[in-house]
Amino acid sequence: MKTSGLIIRPKNIFLIFASAMMIFLFSSCSTSKPFLTSSKVPAARGTVTVKTDRNKNYVIKIELTNLAEAERLDPKKNTYVVWMVTNDNITKNIGKIESSTGFLSKKLKASFETKSSFKPARIFITADYDANIQYPSSEVILTTDNF
Asked: Which domains does the chain have, with CATH numbers?
């Protein structure tokens, strides 16, 4: 007697699960933008990645290389501050650039990560004397195009 039915083997279950995860990962909302070349620190390079988490907040990640220490700028500054311009054209201080070893490592690499309930339209970095300022200075070091 023949029985007809669907027999699912463990190997097939794994392939179905792996395929579903790949589709989910590739369809997640993530935007990456490079910083434009800086006139103040021309060697500095970096990218900003913005994606939404499961709570519908925006996760902002910044990776930087060749960013000179703020004390080496002319005029000297104390820190780099990260700013976000929202879709409503509001500018917010979202933190300062820090690295794990000293201000910037010998390889001049730094990273930054934060979450925001506001959708960013543009991200930029300024050199400032104080990280807790409310308005950006005119000393813009790096900026992105609009997202």
From this structure: 30-143 (2.60.40)
